[in-house]
Design goal:
Helices cover 72% and strands 0% of the residues.
Length: 130
């Protein structure tokens, strides 16, 4: 006895079309505009980090900078996924994603303005800058 089953095609599914590469998905103008807008928040954040660095400790300033960066990084990913999966006519997910990205840029720029140079000087010389 021989049984033949015709599936109507190959049993191996066809490979899906590749999506755009990561460098094609980056919106340079969008991120540059958000980075420029975030400078109004980055300055005060850098001042807060600098005062913590000067009055308390450099390690405390790094901890104070890295906790919001971590939280904002996770929120940014969540809001990006929410905006990508939302209906194209809905503006609220796009606005929420843009606001979180703006805050992330402010935290990154403020941290870069306040901490790395002092940390490098301290690591190379062993002397805390006054």
């Amino acid at each position: 006895m021989t049984v033949t089953v015709d599936q109507g095609g190959s049993l191996i599914p066809a490979a899906p079309e590749p999506g755009p590469r990561w460098w094609q998905r980056i919106r340079i103008g969008y991120n540059a505009a958000l980075a420029a807008l975030s400078l109004t928040l980055a300055g005060p954040w850098a001042a807060v980090l600098a005062s913590v660095r000067d009055e308390e400790s450099l390690a405390g300033a790094w901890v104070m900078a890295l906790i919001p960066l971590t939280v904002l990084g996770f929120l940014d990913n969540a809001r990006r996924a929410e905006a990508a999966g939302a209906d194209p006519d809905l503006w609220a997910p796009k606005w929420r994603a843009a606001i979180v990205r703006l805050l992330l840029w402010a935290a990154v720029i403020g941290t870069v303005l306040a901490l790395p140079i002092t940390t490098l000087v301290y690591a190379l010389t062993g002397v805390k800058p006054a």
